[in-house]
Amino acid sequence: MCDADMLGKTLKHGKLVFCVREEFYKGSLVSVEEAVDLIHQSTIVNMIGRKIVEKALEKGLVHPDAVLDIEGVPHAQIVKL
Asked: Most buried residue, 36, 48, 50, 60, by most Cβ within 10 Å?
């Protein structure tokens, strides 16, 4: 999932190039609270964007040390076993 304003952007950090591709990230447009509900239901989550990552941090779904900064934009992944 991504913040809507991130869709289609390319971020760079050193040799890292991160493309927020529509083929991967585009889906239903939902509120941040609906996205949090989806996180609770999911076993694997890949998220990028200030709104969604900050909300995941606030809800305790992501540890702050697990958040990467890519060109000033937070990115996090969750894997539930």
From this structure: 48
Residue pLDDT, tens place only, 13-63 = 889 899 999 999 998 999 999 999 999 999 999 999 999 999 999 999 999
Give the pLDDT score at 29: 93
| 8 A C-beta contact, residue 12 and residue 75 | no
Return the H-helix or E-strand segment holding 25.
Answer: helix 22-25
Secondary element (H or E) of residue 76? strand 73-79
The domain limits of the chain are: 4-79
Q: Write down the pTM of the prediction.
A: 0.91
Pairwise CA distance, residues 23 & 61, whole Å: 25
Q: Quick one: 76 exposed, middle or buried, by C-beta within 10 A (0-12, 13-18, 19+)?
A: buried
Question: What phi and psi values does residue 10 have, to the nearest 5 degrees?
Answer: -120, 125
